[in-house]
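Bench log. Compound arrived from synthesis this morning; before running ITC I wanted a structural hypothesis for how DAU sits in the protein. Inputs:
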Amino acid sequence: MKILVTGGAGFIGSNFLYYLFAKYENLFVVNLDKLTYAGNLKNLSELEKKAGKNYVFIRGGIEEEKLVTEILHKYDIEYIINFAAESHVDRSIDNPYPFITTNVLGTQNLLECARKKGIKKFIHISTDEVYGSLGKEGKFTENTPLAPNSPYSASKASADLICRSYYKTYNFPVVITRCSNNYGPYQFPEKLIPLTFLKASKNEPIPVYGKGENIRDWIFVEDHCRGIDLALSKGKPGKVYNFGGQAEKTNLEVVKAILDFLGKPHTLIKFVQDRPGHDFRYAMDFSLASKELGFYPSLTFEQGLEKTLTWYTQNLSWIESILSGEYLEFMRKWYAKR
Ligand code: NAD
Ligand code: DAU
């Protein structure tokens, strides 16, 4: 199997590469990653040793037509899994431009290069955020209309629609997966769980938006990786599959669980100004993925959180090493406004 993985130096992409190489033997993977602030080759140091000649890293953007075409032909790529994206909602509010360049234009370029090459299957990694926000009841299904509320989710919904058009117009074998909030090793500490861990371990205030009542459906990253692998082997071209963790929690519940694990006081919680356009609740109905792919989340939130926080506790040097000047500058600017 010859696979191009894009964005493989990010959080989910690097976990997926470990998953793939642990599961398959007859495998060759090219990882194309631009190494933005969120991409980190340190995530992959163990993988490079394990995979040896069956793994190649190339630094570059999915929006680069010549580079992508060269890679597809040089390595005779059969499958593509597109993780590459600008992924943080707050950054999309601060500056939407790179979200359009990568998530929309980059995805279209990748699809077009792949169509010309004749790829067997293209898995596009999308998100529950394309559906917008839920009230207190109900869940998102694959038939829920797209109603994105942030520049990030609008860029992901746009990419999903371009994928759809490639299937309808060219019969191009694209499968879209939409997942809820991931957590686990190697997540960049701008996202709620690693940010809370980092702040709490330094006894710094933890910024909770609004009243902390917003709800996310949390999934351990390895469960998401298994779902993507199932979509690669069994997903039907042109279809969308939802993945979720069956673990709805308010942000306050999540933050308190982390503080309790670390033995830190709840007084570290600091309620700050809400995120503009903040979606209230996400919850995924993944019955289609269960029926057609055999997908189910294997860990409860409590099990997954313990694994995650244990990993962060044992890898404090990892978290410290990726705190670049750019990260600190964004955090300072963003939270100064709240
Ligand atoms: P991340 O920000 O941790 O990683 C993104 C990776 O993409 C980084 O390595 C970055 O360097 C790379 N990248 C950015 N722009 C690029 C470009 N133009 N060309 C090539 N590489 C580029 O993101 P993540 O959390 O791992 O998310 C991966 C994918 O999964 C994204 O498409 C995201 O929308 C989707 N997703 C994320 C979650 C979540 O909870 N994190 C949930 C559902 C879906
Ligand atoms: O639902 C899937 C999405 O999950 C992915 O598509 C995105 O790429 C990923 O970033 C994530 O988006 P969220 O906006 O839900 O994740 P984040 O960790 O930024 O925020 C989770 C919740 O915590 C959200 O309700 C906002 C809140 N929050 C976040 C931060 C960073 C806070 O209260 N304080 C914070 O400092």
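What the model suggests: The chain has a mean pLDDT of 97. The chain has one domain: 2-185+217-246+276-299.
ITC booked for Thursday regardless.
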